[in-house]
Amino acid sequence: MKNTASINGFIKIIVSCILALSSSLSFGNPTTSQWAVFEQSFAAKFEGNPFREGKLKATFSNGDKVLTVDGFYDGGGIFKIRFMPDASGEWSFITESNIPDLDKKTGSFTCVPSAGSVHGMVHVRDTFEFGYSDGTPYYPVGTTCYQWVFQGNPKQTLETLSKNAFNKIRMCVFPKNYDVYINNEPPLYPFEGSKEKGWDFDRFNPAYFKMLEENIGKLMDLGIEADLILFHPYDWGKWGFDKMPQDKRLQYVEYIVARLASYRNVWWSLANEFEYLGFSNGEWEQLFTLIESKDPYHHLRSIHNGEHWYDVLKPYITHLSVQTTDFFDIQDWREKYKKPVIIDECVYEGDIPSDWGNLTAEEMTSRFWQVYCRGGYCTHGETYIDSRNILWWSKGGILRGQSPSRIAFLRKIMEERPISGVVPFHNLWNKEMYLFKPGEYYLYYYGNTQQKLARFKMPGNIKFKFEVIDTWNMTITPVEGTFSGSTEIKMPGRPWMAVRIKSFMTSE
Amino acid sequence: MKNTASINGFIKIIVSCILALSSSLSFGNPTTSQWAVFEQSFAAKFEGNPFREGKLKATFSNGDKVLTVDGFYDGGGIFKIRFMPDASGEWSFITESNIPDLDKKTGSFTCVPSAGSVHGMVHVRDTFEFGYSDGTPYYPVGTTCYQWVFQGNPKQTLETLSKNAFNKIRMCVFPKNYDVYINNEPPLYPFEGSKEKGWDFDRFNPAYFKMLEENIGKLMDLGIEADLILFHPYDWGKWGFDKMPQDKRLQYVEYIVARLASYRNVWWSLANEFEYLGFSNGEWEQLFTLIESKDPYHHLRSIHNGEHWYDVLKPYITHLSVQTTDFFDIQDWREKYKKPVIIDECVYEGDIPSDWGNLTAEEMTSRFWQVYCRGGYCTHGETYIDSRNILWWSKGGILRGQSPSRIAFLRKIMEERPISGVVPFHNLWNKEMYLFKPGEYYLYYYGNTQQKLARFKMPGNIKFKFEVIDTWNMTITPVEGTFSGSTEIKMPGRPWMAVRIKSFMTSE
Description:
- The structure is a homodimer.
- Chain A is 22% helix and 29% strand.
- Chain A is of the alpha/beta class.
- In chain A, helix 5 (246-260) links the parallel strand 15 (225-231) and strand 16 (266-271).
- The interface between A and B is large, with 38 and 37 residues.
């Protein structure tokens, strides 16, 4: 299930070294692979603030394909440009800069096809679905570790992720200060300055972003999308990163896009619980549209709600990132917004007092199934009381709950569905939960019910095979025989069951 | 918990006998008790159709109180008037009729105060609550037995009800034809005629309504409200009682109001899943306003939805009778409609295949708690597969499920709350579920969570006692000590828990 292609990271380093050596010279033809990060460094002398005043961009081309990316200052007199080639073949570039040392530099590299396990970036597919650049479906199975990179244990977290089935992780750029659960200092800060003396929002700390990138790269190697939260309100006066004025926010966003857009697994999540940050709608729109203009690859863009919703009809929002515990309206949201729906927060498995962190594993699992069978995707989190306040939800570390294995089981079922044409059942009752592709595939979820029989009205002219799925005990039991038309099958009479139905092609 | 005042039924019979003897004579002063049924019979000869053409009404007065009721033809040459005195003292009446034998007849009776267990009719109290005429609170704890009177076993059903805590029952006037679960013939029919030859909607069968009344009277003796469903769509061509034209519907409603309005425990539920009957909104409104004008006691009036809602803002609707499995909006509905909310159908405990009848007992119980702690009231039903298709939901009989005892436990908790001023918590998240009366009473429900600690921000200047309630195991465990301000209490870390908090008055 995991993409273990750490070769990409390796290639990136090699390419980077070669190009750093070659500096601004056009130097042979290095190689990178499709959807990996190509990086070019340039040494340059610059008076003034290189973050703020040093302008660098590069235009990459490969035949008809032409993309322009911003470069960024990485400290130590080094400017960089990064680029993600989305097609194999020969790529060349030329820079543009207000710094003579960086202007009109050219270079080229050869992009080789990706390894089989690398499928590109995740985009919206078929209005309500996601898929990689090469067309491979991507079914989001998210988890939440807001601060695993800076306030937790990245190594242990990556180790845990490698053993689980999550393929998306919600994580913050800025450190988090939230109750007793997370309030430790990160080893680095994103800006120059200090808590005591104040931050210079005009001077980034490249080491901070390098640490972030390194870990995002490791997620990439594991096949995990980084749903990167650019702003969050959980600072509460501790650092003040939530209090930047709008011009500094724009500058920060521009910097992070320049650094990170070439990581194929990055998603731009503008905020967690956006409304508590107090930005105006116009300010959010400015941030969104800046990203839209600066990110040539069009990574996914979303914004996560607290009590209120952002106007998610806005065209710069690619999908819904919803906090809710009410799943009844998922089908309606699909129809209203014509975008994929991810329930990115619906309370976590755990036992803490907070009302957002004490679901049983059964209920966390059931919420994944409910959301999935209503046509959305769900995100996990874990918040078990810990004497050292290391909760997976904030600091990563280890997973102790019982839902992750069940969620992995569901992911397998997701991946076995038809690639396209699967839709959720929807009527005004909105009571039944099932996905279907008429005549071909049906996946019913029964939640907290205990029927002893299940009845189906199948098309009469097609033979179907039935399977009874125990979503908790993770078993799939085929029902003997094939069925057409009105069908009744025996059920075990206990909660958390599902039924999968597939058309059965005989050789007749 | 039960009102076993069968004395009312007895008094009714005595009064009826005495008055039948006295016929139209003003005869001494018989006695009835407050909120019991006073009945006066009159023999009269009448040419034509006495149901349709015989008009009779009577005006009852007691000091300033004056109420007019319609009489009805009860077969065998007997017309009757029934009256429910809502105040003790001397009542007299005078009739008005187009039949000379029935016109200007007078009579009187003495109304004595009710027994202590009889509190009158149920009305809306404090906008969102219910209470009896004498001010005693009434907290609806409903069940559903659509056809226990005519297609089930009334004796056994009443016996079962007497051993449980339900104080409201949803039941139909007309027989029901629904799948394999209920399709048997009733022993009687409401109209003259037959299935084969057709029904004469102008001629009622008094024996049918007597059987109905007798059983509604027995519910009254048990302290159970009869939420009487006047129309339902589940006939499917078997009898055709759903196909009366509007003028016949109005005639039927007028007849049933004349017969039954004097039963203090009757509620008028215009329909079950009203929209499938296909009446126009204007027709429903005509039926509602007819009842409003003919029922001098103003019994509760509602209408139950299928997929669509009736315009429940209409002033003739006293409370919401909702079918839903989504409880998130209960607080919103209270605020929007300013009426009590009863979730009259939210799937039943059972194990049948239909998606409306297979909840676990845990889930049925939890739904009662969820609805209650959001400021509504809930209704039970039971649908366990039975070899003879005797399901409590349709035919009554015995209860086999595990939720009724838990619902009885909840009723006890309801009855221990402050009489007024208790409201549900409501914010935009709509996630937390609790009722509270600030500074005095709090009832939190935690559903399918497993927190090991619960935290509360209580007022600092009041001492509170805490109790941990296991809604499934039906235990109430006091927490030692009293608490003020920020309070943390230990929880058992398993689902279906509640916490009750009461202010604690010391003698200081």
